[in-house]
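Q: Focus on the chain.
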Amino acid sequence: MTLLNVDIHHAGYEKGKAIIESILFSLNQGELIGIIGQNGAGKSTTIKSILGLLQNMEGTITFKEESKYSYIPERPIFYDELTLWEHLDFIAAIEGLDEGMYRRQAEVLLEQYKLSDHAHKLPNTYSKGMQQKAMLVLSLITNPSVYIIDEPFIGLDPNAMKLFLASIERERKRGAGILMSTHVLDTAEKVCDRFLLIHNGRLAAAGTLREIRDQCNLPEGSLYECFHEIAEGKDI
């Protein structure tokens, strides 16, 4: 089942100045797609276009009817005067979550991510790694159909990274689709079903690792090697 269809003709931050063009793909139930590209290639612009944050975008973004999505930004964002638990209460109220179920799930997530002792503190006082874990907890609490994640591994220690990967694997088994932008190519190669390699604002290659290898003429190449084949400007 398709959860998200993306057909971006062109998009940018100023009228008449496109940053990305011809970005076309779909995200299916239980699928994890990795968005790969150099800094400035257009990964974040693609994500912002999907989220409807760019006025200068032509194309169509279609989520499955009645589906919910969670967005995890590269730089965590919190309300200055709310504790982490108050953030959770706020989300639960907006989403109309059952209080008993929501509180039980919140307690489990806070324990898993070692944030129980910090739940009644302001997230803006946390370390960067703790802030990133708090954002993960806030995104997981709503049980969305789609996750849109921008550079999730920044600031996570190895244990937190392992926990995050286990969390998204559980969400995939539940049927959620995940769109993840990352520079951590060795991890992406292991966990993603398909990849979107964006270069100079265009979709330079797309598909499974085997399909990416074929497009890059690297039959045994790693995702890292395919990425550099594209980044170095060789013909594909």
